[in-house]
């Protein structure tokens, strides 16, 4: 699906476009693409309940106008990409919440439709990324932060493929495969993407310079390099301090675009379900990441429109 075309201009908040933009891949050929921030945590800050198993998918189902408004806030701040509220959506996850499979399929479709509506209203080459979260997100027990599910690559491939097919058929510009914690699940994702014709980015979650599973970043980025469907790879849902070394691992492992959208710098206490610590100041870190040639940059948990605006301003500064 094509995004709106744009002509020579600088939008005042982010990248300068010098040619017609027809896809997410085209955006990656210019200055860093400005991603959005943490949708679920923005909704929470606006008074919406995201504490249940479905997280932001509950808001998508019951209050879609709130999702539309959140996308609009990020676009107004300077984001070029709306990431859909589908991270937590799966048939099994909905079944565990007492909801029919058909509701999960409808939610996947609706997530793309709402984001597309927001992108069309924002105009100027804005695009839609359909979020595909890890298997651990469905478990809703924090296991996406270690990836030890006890499942084979084949089993995870079978679990991911129907959701990938459904989301891609709904018409996003790119699939945002995100917060993947292990090489096993990354391999399953690559297999699930094979032959779909989709465009995707593959983003992993890291700690101490490695995948959350303890496996090598070089190995997972080399795996991403082997997939024709994957157009960018990098990290998300991690501490800002992890980004520089991860971007270097991307640079050494693949010629594909790099992507980074860390958390605010606060840490999630999964046991007590609360955030601790202080947010990291973005300006110096973001400028350093831009100097590495990062292809797309944004935020994950606890990164709101204000921080996305600061990222967009950093991207827009003449160099």
TrEMBL record:
The residues that the entry says bind Zn(2+) are 237, 300-301
- Tell me which UniProt keywords the record has, alphabetically: Metal-binding, Methyltransferase, Transferase, Zinc
Necessary cofactors: Zn(2+)
Q: Name one Pfam family in it.
A: S-methyl_trans
Instruction: Give EC number(s), comma-separated.
Output: 2.1.1.10
Output the GO biological process annotations, alphabetical, semicolon-separated.
methionine biosynthetic process; methylation; S-methylmethionine cycle
- Tell me where in this chain the Hcy-binding domain is found: 21-315
* A molecular-function term among this protein's GO annotations: S-adenosylmethionine-homocysteine S-methyltransferase activity
Protein name, UniProt field: Homocysteine S-methyltransferase
**Which InterPro entries does the annotation name?**
BHMT-like, HCY_dom, HCY_dom_sf, Hcy_S-methyltransferase
* Keyword Metal-binding on entry: yes
Origin organism of this chain?
A: Labedella phragmitis
Q: Which domain of life is it from?
A: Bacteria
Lineage, broadest ranks? Bacteria, Bacillati, Actinomycetota, Actinomycetes, Micrococcales
């Amino acid at each position: 699906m094509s995004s709106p075309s744009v002509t020579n201009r600088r939008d005042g908040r982010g990248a300068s476009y010098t040619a017609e933009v027809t896809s997410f891949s085209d955006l990656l050929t210019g200055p860093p693409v400005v991603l959005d921030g943490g949708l679920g945590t923005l909704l929470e800050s606006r008074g919406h309940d995201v504490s249940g198993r479905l997280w932001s998918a509950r808001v998508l189902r019951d209050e879609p106008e709130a999702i539309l408004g959140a996308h609009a806030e990020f676009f107004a701040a300077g984001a070029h990409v709306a990431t859909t509220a589908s991270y937590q959506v799966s048939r099994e996850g909905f079944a565990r919440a007492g909801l029919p499979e058909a509701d999960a399929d409808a939610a996947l479709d609706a997530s793309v439709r709402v984001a597309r509506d927001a992108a069309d209203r924002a105009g100027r080459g804005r695009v839609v990324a359909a979020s595909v979260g890890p298997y651990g997100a469905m478990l809703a027990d924090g296991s996406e932060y270690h990836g030890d599910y006890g499942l084979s690559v084949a089993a995870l491939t079978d679990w991911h493929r129907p959701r990938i097919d459904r989301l891609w058929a709904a018409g996003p510009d790119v699939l945002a495969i995100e917060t993947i914690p292990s090489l096993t699940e990354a391999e399953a994702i690559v297999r699930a993407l094979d032959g779909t014709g989709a465009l995707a980015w593959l983003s992993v979650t890291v700690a101490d310079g490695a995948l959350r599973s303890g496996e090598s970043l070089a190995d997972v980025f080399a795996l991403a390099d082997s997939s024709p469907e994957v157009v960018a790879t990098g990290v998300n849902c991690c501490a800002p301090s992890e980004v520089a070394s991860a971007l270097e691992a991307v640079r050494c492992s693949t010629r594909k675009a790099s992507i980074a959208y860390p958390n605010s710098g606060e840490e999630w206490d999964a046991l007590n379900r609360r955030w601790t610590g202080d947010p990291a100041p973005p300006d110096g870190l973001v400028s350093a990441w831009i100097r590495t040639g990062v292809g797309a940059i944004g935020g994950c948990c606890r990164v709101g429109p204000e921080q996305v605006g600061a990222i967009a301003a950093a991207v827009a500064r003449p160099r």
